[in-house]
Each structure stands twice: as C-alpha cells, then as structure tokens.
Structures
1.
Amino acid sequence: MKSLKDRATGSHLRNLLLVTTALALPAAAGAQTQTSAAAPEGISDIIITATKTTQNLQDVPISVQVFDTQALSNLQVQSFNDYVRFLPSVTYQTSGPGTAKVYFRGVSSGENANHSTSQPTVGIYLDEQPVTTISGAVDVHMYDIARVEALAGPQGTLFGSSSMAGTIRIITNKPDPSKFSASVDAELNSVTDGGMGGVLEGYVNVPLSDRVAVRAVGWYRKDAGYIDNIFQTRVYPTSGIEATTAPYVKKDYNDVETIGGRIALGIELDDNWTITPTLMGQKQKANGFFGEETILPHRQVAQYNPEWGRDEWFQAALTVEGKIGNWDLVYSGGYMKRKTPGDSDYSDYAYFYDSLYGSGASFYDNDDNLVSPNQYIQSRPRYKRQSHELRLTSAQDKPVRALVGLFYQRQQNDIEEHYIIDDIADDLVVPGTDSNIWLTKQRRIDRDYAIFGELAWDITEQLTLTGGARAYKYKNSLVGFFGYSAGYSSRTGVAACFGPAEVDGSPCTNLDKTTSDTGWLPKVNLTYKVTDDALVYATYSQGFRPGGINRRGTLPPYQSDQLDNFELGWKTSWADNTIRFNGAVYQLNWKDIQFSALGENGLTTVANAGDGRIRGFELDLTWVPAAGFTLSGSSSFNDAKLTTDFCSVASLQGNCPADLVLAPSGTRLPDTPRFKANVIGRYEWTIGDSADMHVQGAFVYEGERNGDLRTETRQIVGDFPSYTNVDISAGFTQNNWSVELYATNLFDSKGITSRSVQCGESVCGDPEGVTQSGGIFYNYTMRPRTIGLKAGYRF
C-alpha cells in the first residue's frame, strides 16, 4: 500500500562545534557505550515529492531542504516559527501566531501583507492542497508530520502564482493498514520572564482491514506569555483628556492556547487505486500583544485597549490516486475556511495625529463636547478557499517521462474591520455601526486557472533534459465599502458611494473593481549524473505573482510581477555516503516589483515601482564522522538590491524625477540578511541492551537586515541587528518510553524578527520629535529562553 504510506562560518561556527563537542564528550567516555568503536553508517535516504513524483532527495535537481519526522522532533519544532529558523534561504516577519510573512532568497520589498494588497511570494501547502493566505501563513501545529519540504526559487510551473520565490510543503503521516500504532506525548516548559506552558498530543493508527486504515491525531498546547503590559498614561493635546492603561495592566499577558486535530481515512480499492479523505482543524487563541515598545525596557508595552486574536480554521481534503494504463493519476481537492477575529489597540494613531495635526478637534459628541480620540480596531475577517488539481504522470522508468495537469482555485476573503472611537456624535458614525469612525467591509475574490506540464528526456544514461510550462489566467476582484461617514468626510467613504450596498453590513458601495490577465511560465533544466553519487544541474525558471486592486479610486490596478531564476546546483555524496554536500548558486531578476505602503489616512496602496536583482548561494552539508555522531550545517548568502530607481509613481518607472525616487538603484532589499547559517550536532549511543541516549546542540545565525526599502523611511525605522540562537537537548529512549530535557534560545537572545508601527512611519515614528515621548515602534523578538521536559510512550 505504498500510495498510502509516506516514507519517510567563522567564529559562530567554531563556537557551535565547541558546544557540540562538549555535549558529546561525556557520552563518548561512557564505559558501557556500544557504538563508539563501530564504523559510521551512511546517511539515510530521504524520499520527497517536491516535483510531484516520488524521488530520492539526492536525485531531485532543485534546491530543497527537508525535515523528516525525527528531525522535527529533535529540533523541538511545534510551530511555523520553529522550523523556519533552520531554513537558510527563508526569512520571516511576524506580529504573533498566524501572522507570518515569509520570504525566500531575499525576494522582499517590505510589503505589509494588508488584506487588500499583494498576494505572498511564497506558497504554503498542506499535503497536496495550497493553504497560502494573504494576511499570514497558517500556523499548523507540527505533530505526526512526515516531513517539511522547503523548495527554494521559483516553482511557478508546478505550484503556480504564489510560489514566485519558493514553496513550503507540510506533509502529514498517512494511514497505514499494515499495523496498529499509537503514541502519546506530554511536555511541561518554563519561559524566561514568563510563565509555565505545556503540550499534550497523541495519535492512533488503526487498520480496519488489510486495505483500510484510519489515523487520528489530536493536540493541545499552552504557550506561556512573557510580555508585560505596564501602567502608563497619556494626555491628548487638543482635548486635554487623559487615557490610561490601568484596566489592561497585566504580567505575561501574551499567552496562547492551541487545540486541534486531524483524522484521515486510507482506502485501497485495489492494487492501483487509493482514496484518502482528510479532515483537519485548529483553534488558536492569542491574548495580549507580542511586540515590545522600543522606548520601554525589554518585553514591556503600554497598550490602552483590549488586545486578543483568534485563528480558527479547518480543511476538508480528498486525494485520489490510481493508474490509467501506464499513467499515474492524482486528483487532489480541498476546501478550507478560516476566521481570524481580534481586537487591537490603535491609540498611537489617535495620539500622534492629534499631537501633530490637532485631529482631536474633529471628535465630539452630540452636545458638541470633545471626546477622547482614543481609537481601537475590531477585526472580524472570514476566509475560504477551494482548490482542485488533476494530473497525469507517465511511467518514471522510461527514457521519456511526462507530467500534465489542470488546476483551479478560488479564494474569497470577507474583510471586516471596525475602527472605533467611543461616544462620538451620530453624524460622525458610519451608518449601520455603533460608533465607527471608519469601516472596511469588502469582499475580495481571487481566481486562478492553469494548465501545466513537464517533459523529461534522458538524452543519455547520464544526461537529462527537462522542459516545463504553465499557462495561467487570473481574475481578481474587490467590491464593498471603506471609509468615513458623510458627516466626517465630504470626499471619501459614504460621500464617495456610487451605489447601494453590495456587501452585507456596509452602508453603500464605493468600491467595485476587477482585474485579470493571462500568461505563461517556462522552465528548462539540464541534469548531468556525474556518478551514482553526484549530479550537477542548470535551471532557468520563472515565477509570478498576480496583479490586484488598489482601493483608492484615483489609483489603477497594480500589475503582476515576475521572477526569472538562473541557477547552477549540485547534489553529492562522499565517503561511502557518510558525507553529503549539496548546493546551488543563482541569480534572480525581479521585474515590476509590487510595493505596498501606507498612504493617506493609513490606506495601503500598491504600485509596480522598480526592478531588482538577487545573487546568492545555498550550501547544505551533512557529515557522519563516527557511529552515532552527526554534524549538519546549511547556509545562504543573498546580495539583493534594486537595479532601477524605486519610483513612487509606477508609470514613471525608468524616467522617475528625483523628488519621486523612494530608493535609488543599488539600494539593498529589506527583510533578508546577506548571510544566514545553522549548524546542528547530535550524538546517539546505546547503554546496556535497550537504553538509547542522545545529546544535541543547534546553532542559528542571522545577519543584519535592512528595516525598510525606502531611504527616508529606513532612517526612521532603523535596521535589524544580527543575532544568534543556541538550542540544546538531551534524553533517552528505553523500550517504548522516551524522555528529553531541552532548552531553546539558551542564552536568551533578544533577536528582532520584525518591527511595526501603528500608522505611517513619518507620523507614528515622529521623526521631528514633536511629542515628548518620541515615536513608538514595536519590536517582535525571538521567544525567550524556554526550558522544557518531554515524555512520550509508543504503543
């Protein structure tokens, strides 16, 4: 039943080697150690499906990094942030659970991932189904996962529009009718400057017959908080009204609870056909706020309004696999719903606009008395998507092999955001709301259609030529309402409406736009098998991101952007497969970069504002110098910069006046370090007849990153300094029991992963120093040192 069961530099590096050696030495000296004198075994094969066919990692001519079930467990991976740290080609920004923005190979312009703007440049897949969403990657709890595959570079021909820079695939363990298996695992942990957390998770795999099995998985996780909301007051200058954080003062108030599960049924109809329906869902409740104010001590904020967020989603998926003659057929379909409601503080916006421009004079009650301009947001978005893919693959043992497929997806985002100022006069309130000064109520639909295929030809036993293409069409629309009441603004919001409400809950319609386009993406790959243990390849590939709608009526839709990839790579094994060395060098040419930024009234706009170029390399080395001892390391270098002036007006690109240049040619792209690396050392040995022991050390280094692409804004925001992270663990397995003690972020690094501000940087950043407090930015840092004890039992 093979279709149902997935098989699975510099001083910093020297320091890690010392840590790893120190961890290993006590074990190596043990008198009862049985493996210390044995010859090292070869590195295990890793089977992946990155090319939508089943292959050994070392035979796949693309840059892929893989974590299997054991590696995910060894690295204490529970969430998205945990495994992305160990992907050298990937960087991310996050403002809390479920909000991560992901970047491969430096392909980032600093986009803010607003609900009405650009789609991501990185595709996220859960098994065969795409789960990419605009406002943040789905944060799947990582338990009973077969592997994570990170595909670097454009994957446009096989994975489509949102895989312009790369793709991350999360592959779950499938039902196995050959045997019963089950596991239960528990964890208790403590967070520095925070509280106690824990995990309880388990799975059971039950054969119902020799051809049918069910696999059920469940989990509960409590992440302790570590950010304190402290007491503070502020006075709004125009009205003299004082605000206080007193009702919301709390220690460690950013705790998170996650509960979820998965059930899959594997049905083998005969020797050729299988059906796998799957249901998976998760509910995550995050309290408080996950940033720290730059003007306060570490891990402190002063928030004046309630803050919380939930991320609730479920997916129903169906995969059908079979044979038609010598062709393999796969149908995969999925339906996903996601809700991410939450409340957030927006008082900085109110305070700085009042301090700089006297906006507080505009907010009064029905008796014309000034009210507090304090503002907060109630967000209630709902998201759903369906996707369908049908593909046929010819026999893989033939000299000519083909893959053809059809793809369709429809994503709908029902956007609902209430910007509220309490007790304002009726004429200031957006009609149909209680006390909204602003309302966003829109329906966004993104549709994608594609025909794709690849053809591989073994010119000789060693030389293979592969060509691929994807013909696509996208159609994206945005309809609804955004803005103020007619009593507050005579030009925008209700005053700009041209028709009755198209979206329920909105007063009228002032936005109804659609954009569409067609095109195609090529891919050419030449692979040479030097020996059975070494191959080299050359690839040209393209990726793209669809265009979309600008809400502001005076701005046209933005167009798609495109990434051209020129790549040389190698996959090699040495010394009886005890050394594995893979790598790639590449150049990416990024055309018509979609750039999103806050504009007037905090409204995000998008323009195709320039071109960029990234040159870099990726290296991945694994070495087994002795039995039970494994060292692995990976790194990336990216020189990412603009090749044209970045212009504030897209139509003037290539002929941009000096006063409209946001960033000159040669400016480094933001969010990605030039260098990122990790090293992992693990030693395993056996004591007596049944006790398997291990110690492990893991080290991650991330270099300095630019805080923004725009020259003036970068001076306000600042850059993100480099940081390092060290994790250690030790434990044993005996019979069916396992116990492990670990520490992540051992030295309590406060490395900054991202930074935000509540409104435009030139306002809430207060570069002129108009207010006494100065601008308020929020740093989102690594999770503090966490020490945990894990125990598990395998049935």
2.
Amino acid sequence: MTVPADPTATADEAGPLLDTVLQDWTGRCRHPSLAVALSDGQPIRLDQTAALVLRGLAEPMSEAEGLHRLVDDGEFTAVAELMDMSGRPDGSAGTALPRGVLASLDARLDAAQQEALTTVRSRVTLLQRRASRSSTALPADLAQRAEEAALRRRAEATALLDETEAAVHRAEQRQQQELRAELSAADLSEAHAAAVLACLEANEFEAGRRLLTAEGIDMHGSSPAWVPRPPRWDAALGRTLQEILSHYPPDSVPPRHDYLTRYVRLSKSDVPLLQSLRRLASARHETSVADFTSCLSATLGEDVRKPVTFRDAGFHTLLTGLADARLPHLPITDPGGVHLWVSASDAPPPEELPGPLVWFVPTAGPAPATPAGVAALTAVELLCVLAPPPAGLLSTPAHRRINLLRLLVPRLGPCALAFPDAGIALNGGTPREALAWLLDLHAVVPDAAVVHALDYESEGQPVVLRMLLEEVLPQRSADGRLNRTDLARVRTPEFRAQVRSAVADGLPAEERAALGLAYALHREEPFRGSDILADLPLAGLPDDFPRRSGQLFDAEEVLDRLCRHGLLRQKTLQDGTSGYRTLRAGLGALLTDGAAEQAGAAVETLLQRLEQARAFSRAAHTEKAVRHHAHQADNDLAVILENLNALGARLDGDDAAAVNQIMQMLPRLGGEQIRTSVSGYQSPPAVHDLVELLRAVTRDVEFNEGVRITFRTELPHGPPDEAPVLAVRTGLQTAFENLIRNAAQAVRSLRADPSAEMVRSGPDIVVRLGQPETEPHGWFQVDIEDAGPGLTEEERTFLRTGEHLSRHGTGGTGLAAARGLVQDAGGRVDILDRSDLGGAHLLVRLPAAGDGPAG
C-alpha cells in the first residue's frame, strides 16, 4: 500500500484503499482513540492516524477491553458502530467476539446511556430553576439537544450544559452586581444590609429585592435571611443564673461592659418572662413552672396556660407558640403544643413521655446530652433568643420563634424530619422555600446549587426529603457548609434503591398499580383516571376483564391519594377538566425505573384479592342458601314422617319393618344433617384417628344398606388401634362413605340379578386398614373390596381417567367426589384389578399426621 508523501494529506487523498483499511480494520477495537476519531466522520490527517495507532500500541488491550473502555469514556456512538460491525454475518469486518460478550456489552452500553440521560435531565432541570431565579432565557430545545448528545457522547452533552451553566452563572453575577449596587446606594442599617447580603449570597434575588425596599424586616418573608440569628452568649455576664439575671430589668445592675447592654435591653412585654424565670430558678413547683411556661408561650405569640404535673423529680406540661406558617409541618410545630419537661440537669425526662420533647434546664451551664427526640434548652440559651436584634430590625414573636426552633430542631435528631403524609406545607410558599428553612433550622449553610439539587431529587416528597437530609446532614462541615460534592452519597444506585423501596413498597396494591401505569405509560403527557383503568389490561389484566376493571379500585380516589403522597401532581387539562401528571425531576425518574413490572405485580395482587372477595361472597350466599334449604327440608321431612308413621300403624310384618327402617333413615336428609355437614366442611384440618372413623362409617353403611361388612386393622407399626391423619373429618368421612356405599350398591345389584349365582357365605365387603410395605412409617392404606359383579377392563380404564360411571342412576359422581376429598387430605385413590371377593378393589392411601403427603 502506498501513501502520499505530504504528511498533511487526508485519508480521502490517500485513496479508497486507505479509507477501507481504516473503516473496516478488524483491530479498531484495540485502539479506542482511533475508533473515536473515525466515528466523528471528519477527515483525519496521516500524522494524526499514526499517532492514534501508536497510542493504542503503547497500551495493548483486547477487543472486549477496548469496547469497555469506550463505554467508560462515554463514547456511545463509537461502541454502537463497532458492535454493529461485529454482527455482520459474513464476518468480513469488525470483531469476532462471542455472542455472550456482545450481549453483556450491549446491556452495559444501555445502562451507561440511561445513566447519562439521568444526569443530563438533572442538570437541565437545575439550570432551568436557576435561570428562572436569575431571569435568564434558556434555549427552548435545550433538554432535547442535551439528551440527544448524551446518547451519542457523554462529553458532548457535558460541554453543551457547561456552556449553558456558564451563561446562567454570568446572569447570576449580573444580578448580584445590580443588587449590590442598589444595596450600596440604599440607606439601611448595618443589620438590614447584612440580611439583604445574605439573600444575595444564597441567590435569593427576589427576596433580596423585597428586603431592599422594606422599611424594616417584619419577619414575614419566606427566606431564612429575613430572620437574623441571635448573638453568641458572652460569659462576661456571669457564671451563675442568679448573677446573670441580676443584669436584667426591672431591678438590674448594669453590665460591666457597655457592649453587653444589648442582651439586657428587653421590651416591657418580656419582663413577665424574666420575673417568672427568676421565680423558677429560686423554687420549682407547679405554680412557678406554669407561670414560666405561660409567659414563654406569650412571648412566642400564644397566650395559653397548660396544666402542670409533677413526677420523677421534674414537671411535665405543654409549650405552645412554636408553630410557624413559613416552616414545614414538623412535629415540633404542632399547634396543640410540644411536650415540655422542666427539671435539673440530673433529672432527665421519663422515657415514656412522647416526643418530640423540650427539656428546659434552668441553669447557666451547658445543655445536657439527650437521646433522639429530646432537645435540651438552658436558661442562658433562652436569654440569647430573647436578646433584641440589631438596630433597624424589628423584634416580634416570629423572630423569637424561629431562633428558638434553630436551637431545638438540630437537637431533636431524625425525629424532627418525620413529615406528615400530607407533605410539606407553606402558606404561599414552595417546597424549595420549605427546604431552605429546614436546612437553616439545622444550622446548615448550603449554596444555592445544593438547595436546587435537593429540591430536584426529592420534588418536595416528604419521605424522600427526610431520607436525603438524614444522609447529607452528617456530611456538613464544622462551619455548617454543605456543597454539591456532599450529595454524591444520595446518587448511588444503592441509595436510590432504598428510596424507591421506601416510597413504593409500602403502598396498597391499587396505589402501586396506578403509580406503575402512570410512570410506565404517561411519563410525558397528562392523563385522566379513566386512562389508568383502560391501561390495566396492559399490566396483566385478563382480556375479558376490561369492562369490569372498575371493580379493582376507584381510579380517581387512588390517584388523588397518590397526589397527597406527593408522588403525582394534579393538572388542569386543555379542555378545562382535572387530570394528573407524573413528576418530572429526580423522584419521577426513580419511579419510572421498573414501573411496568411494579404495575404487573400489583395487578396480580389485586386480581387475587378480588377473587378472594368473590369467594367470601359466594360462601356467604352459600351459607344463606343452606339455611333456607335446611329449614325447607325440615318442614318437608316432618310431613313425610307424619304420613309414614300413619302408614306404618296400618301395616304389620315385613311391611311395617320396611316403613320403620325408612323412617330411621329419613332424618339423614333433614336440615340438621345439612347444617352439620356444611359446618364440618368449613372446619380447619385436624388430626383424626382413621381407625375410629372407618369403624363408624362401616357400621353406618352396613345398617343402612343391609350388607355384611368386615373391618380389619393390620398395622405393623405403632398401636394397633391408632392411625392419626390430618384432614377435615367431614370430608374424609364423606369420601369413605361414598366408596363403601358404592361397594354396597354393587353387592345389592348382584343380589337383585336373578341370573347371578350367590354361593358366598362370607362378608359382602372387606375394609382393611394397613400400611404399605414400601413406606410403612409415612402412609396408611385402606383396601376396600366387595363381592359385587366387579368392573370390566374398559370400565376400570374409564374410571382411572377421572370420568363418571353409574350403573344405578346416581350420576356416577361418588367416586370422583371421593377422589377430590381424599386429595384434599394429601392422599389418592387407586382402582386395582378384581379382588379376591370377586368384585371391585379400591386402594386409598393417606399420609400419616406429621409426615405430610409424599411428592
């Protein structure tokens, strides 16, 4: 092969031969860099080609290793082209990888592309939210372009989003500069300016604008920056509580340093709380605790007095005033009040008191350690909360409430994150603002991107948000900082699987079915409840069921519940009617994964539940019908017995005896017998003695059928008169009655045949209980032989297939019914050849109790 002398010549100039070599070279997989360059479709200079080949030679690898490297690098187009070449039937080009290796690579490629799509969608959503806050216009097709790029090359999608993020960052910087310029020109106090600056540093531009134009901070804004934190305590105010309180009004000694006067300059409305704290510090009893709690509630905006109970060296009551409309509905913000325990530091609250619980310790020392669900609060910390804000800022109950919660919530532990099922609720706010407040209460200082990311991942769903925070809060630094690298723990496949399980596994079957169908089939477009019912056949519903699909669940009710759980959103459709849509961000992507399989499994559960309900309904109707027919049978039987009694009185001899025998048999057809039988079938299986049961059945059949029956026990193991079996007694008794009565009817039919010769003098039927020689310890067997006409080979074959056969007009169902009842007890019925008595021979095998049926 010849090549041009000019090293800058392209592959096209080298002629078709070089192009063929490069494009169809079987060793391309071993040179990932060359494969990437060729997949771009751009001409490659000869010197570049040589350098790429040499790079591959410097790091030898197999074809499979090269393809795996390309997948790891996100070069999805190059991998797809090479794998397509490997599948050519003529084998003229590409690799010679085994089919299993290609299948594994294909699965890995698909997984890598899906991961790239998830990352792209997350970044696009976060950029859209940042752009909205900074008034930046993003390209309308950004999401589509980024996803298409992600399926080709991960680096291409990353470059596109990096470029867009840089544009958003520039817009945020412009907003920062404009608002900082306005802040510099504004005549604000130092504290007011610091609050505006805190909003700008968090990229809360709208909150910063509102704050810039406000006369003073009224504590009703939605940003945590509106509420300045209390000052740190200065030990120069004293070491004991009595010494510290001496600096506070009304009888106060001025602090030694002027800068400490900020702490003690309280309003007149705070004096009652200071006085109650003095009384509490000097003497703790029901009255002083009640006065202190009432004054503290009033300082927080609630003038409520709660009863106080003394127990275990402390006092138990309720503290009100912690509820704030701007905050998530944490348990501690229950308007009814949070449990309050007042005691010394060596008298912790009893364990049986419900949490969350505040433990107030009237001391100047450090707060004692507490278990999860209990937050300790000292008198000094309370005085910090009461300290007035810097000049220019208003002091209101809301101000103190927020700062008190800033102390308590981090100390409560995971219990403070137990949101109610209704999710996060703010008056006029958004889940993102609730998240910002929640992070602030936990002394976390996140950057704006972290708040955006947590909002994206959770979409405000309370269970997910709780799990995310419990995972990332321990990662914050000592100064409370939390950045995007700390979120890596919540993006692992293991953690996402835990989240999906926590959200979906505990839902009822109807909610799992509707949720799975929504995310499997309606990810992009809004839908109605009727659409979910129409989708049910796609999730495994039988073809003949769609018209009755509403029997499974009420779609509108179920979808409304999913909206309340935060797993769907309500949506007004184009025609003005109400509909639903799936979540678009991180949680939505998580719920989409495996949605079809979830829906199928849930529908199967619903069908089983529906069949059980129908079975219960049928049983109820059956019981009602039994009671009705039993009552009717009793009435009819009474009339028949009365007539037979009258008839028997006019007869004598054999006729009278026949009537008497009929009258003794007729009660078996009465209502009591029917009710007893049905009740017996409904009883659970129990251990019964097969010896006693067979004796009772043979005596009953012998009397009623007028035949001679011999019963024998031939048990080589165990007591001779015990054969325990686990069964429903009524069922097993009915099975043996049917089989032995069939034998009796066969004997009687032979007697009635004038052409038959009756020469036997022994028993008509022999019932023999024994154990099989092959499995003597695990089974019992019952042989039933009769002296009837027997069965022909054709009749035996017919009955062995489960068909019905009757010679006496009874329908021939006795053997089939007996077979089913014996099978219910774990046994089986076999039809053997002709017996030694000349008639039929049946063998019943039953497992001994405790061993169960054989396989």
